[in-house]
Design brief:
With about 80 residues, this protein is mainly α. Helices cover about 65% and strands about 0% of the residues.
């Protein structure tokens, strides 16, 4: 779920993989591994990704559906 939403939001924000990797201060290959799901970012990088893409961590991690099912209001990403 994370890799799919990461790619969707990157494209929605019109970032290339290289541009987002540069903003995050990581190598392009590392970023590509996050999008393919072969690696996961550490907590601090995950927060930076969410902030950069202007989405919640819950959305990126696929927890928005779980939260909705428990009556918690969540904002849809832009």
């Amino acid at each position: 779920m994370f890799s799919k939403r990461l790619r969707e939001m990157r494209m929605k924000r019109k970032f290339t993989q290289q541009k987002l990797a540069d903003i995050l201060g990581i190598a392009l290959r590392s970023y590509q591994c996050y999008e393919t799901g072969t690696r996961t970012p550490n907590y601090s990088l995950l927060v930076l990704i969410a902030d950069t893409l202007d989405v919640s961590l819950d959305y990126l991690l696929g927890r928005d559906d779980w939260m909705k099912s428990h009556g918690v209001s969540v904002d849809a990403p832009l």
